[in-house]
UniProtKB/TrEMBL annotation:
GO terms, biological process: protein targeting to membrane
Naturally occurring in which organism (per UniProt): Pteropus vampyrus (Large flying fox)
Membrane topology according to the record: Multi-pass membrane protein
UniProt domain Palmitoyltransferase DHHC: residue ranges: 170-314
Domain notes: The DHHC domain is required for palmitoyltransferase activity.
PROSITE patterns: DHHC (PS50216)
UniProt-recorded name of the protein: Palmitoyltransferase
Molecular function as annotated in GO: protein-cysteine S-palmitoyltransferase activity
EC number: 2.3.1.225
Keyword line: Acyltransferase, Cell membrane, Endoplasmic reticulum, Golgi apparatus, Lipoprotein, Membrane, Palmitate, Transferase, Transmembrane, Transmembrane helix
Family of the protein in this entry: Belongs to the DHHC palmitoyltransferase family.
Length: 365
């Protein structure tokens, strides 16, 4: 036993006992994981093609014949409730997953790392990031994103210029009956028009708009940083454990009766069998770090270029209309969108992080 209640380290006999397991399940797990990730990326890339949409419609028709109608209605009601109504389901799921990760980190990683004399600062950093993250998560949830009403309609109409392409002048919202300021959009989930509408986020159960984009960006940044920090500390613990125990120098007997030095894949497999919860958590936060990191880069790109997700999507869809093979009406006029709101990196960031000052200055003009 090591100090601090560290579990017993493997001996050659213990290593021999698990050699028959080899790496089959680990290889299959990585294969399935890679398949899911590649499939997700391909769906994201091809989601706007007519061929894929046709395949999706065809698949839906096939399933409609297989799945009972009552089950189809129940699934549609569930999907409508989850993604088309305001509810706290994803907030609860978000906090549950975060709580499970930090409970495992506190219960096992923190204690083991203290026994291995890792830096207390590095061990405490995830907790500091968690506090900051929960603070900005709450602000993203409760802050008004910029709801357009009769009282502030005239103010918002003066903030951004109409480009007469994506945002034509003198347009009225068919639901609210209010004049639509440039860069605004009616959110069907919240049932309100939102100024500088970015998107509706189910994880915070709120729209992301002019007044809470800054909070959402910091929330996303700290969430990515906390996941990456937990993954880093957990990896440090496993590496330190292997080095202290000289596990990388152990040997095992293969199927032919020959002694073999433990390789990396076999080592990962053994760690998974010895610390299943820790290694599973590490895999989860690693995948989460990559996914959140990719989305964070996209959000920072939009912030740096003064675009919203809604504008990027609509502009990208318009650009795809000019792609070869895209079917469009012959009488349709060319629809070209150019981002006219970008005024340099610092001005763009200032508009997001100090929106009230920008609105006041433009109102004076």
């Amino acid at each position: 036993m090591l100090g601090g209640g560290m579990p017993e380290l493997p001996t050659e006999i213990q290593t021999k006992e698990i050699c028959s397991l080899r790496m089959d399940f680990l290889v299959l797990f990585l294969f399935y994981l890679a398949l899911v990730l590649i499939g997700g990326v391909m769906i994201c890339i091809c989601s706007k093609t007519h061929r894929l949409k046709g395949l999706v419609r065809g698949g839906a028709q096939i399933f409609s014949y297989i799945i009972p109608e009552c089950l189809q209605r129940a699934m549609l009601r569930l999907l409508h409730y989850l993604f088309h109504t305001r509810n706290h389901t994803f907030i609860i799921l978000h906090l549950t997953l975060q709580g499970m990760v930090y409970a495992e980190y506190t219960w096992e990683i923190f204690g083991y790392c203290r026994a291995l004399e890792l830096s207390l600062y590095s061990l405490s950093l995830p907790y500091l990031l968690l506090i900051v993250n929960l603070f900005f998560f709450t602000l993203s949830c409760v802050t008004d994103p910029g709801t357009i009403t009769k009282a502030n309609e005239l103010l918002f109409l003066q903030v951004y210029e109409f480009d007469e392409v994506m945002f034509p002048k003198n347009m009225k919202c068919s639901t609210c009956g209010l004049r639509k300021p440039a860069r605004s959009k009616h959110c069907s989930v919240c049932n309100r028009c939102v100024h500088r509408f970015d998107h509706h986020c189910v994880w915070v159960n709120n729209c992301i708009g002019a007044w809470n984009t800054r909070y959402f960006l910091i929330y996303l940044l700290t969430l990515t940083a906390s996941a990456a920090t937990v993954a880093t500390v957990t990896t440090m613990f496993l590496v330190r454990l292997v080095m202290v125990s000289d596990l990388n120098l152990e040997t095992y007997v293969d199927d032919l009766g020959h002694f073999q030095v433990i390789d990396t894949v076999f080592l990962v497999q053994y760690l998974f069998l010895t610390f299943p919860r820790i290694v599973f958590m590490l895999g989860f936060v690693l995948i989460l770090s990559f996914l959140l990191g990719g989305y964070l880069c996209f959000a920072l790109y939009l912030a740096a270029t003064n675009q919203t997700t809604n504008e990027w999507y609509r502009g990208n869809r318009a650009r795809c209309q000019h792609c070869p093979g895209t079917v469009r009406p012959t009488s349709a006029e060319p629809w070209v969108y150019r981002n006219s709101h970008s005024h340099g990196l610092w001005s763009n960031l200032r508009e997001i992080f100090l929106p009230a000052a920008v609105h006041y200055e433009r109102k004076k003009k």
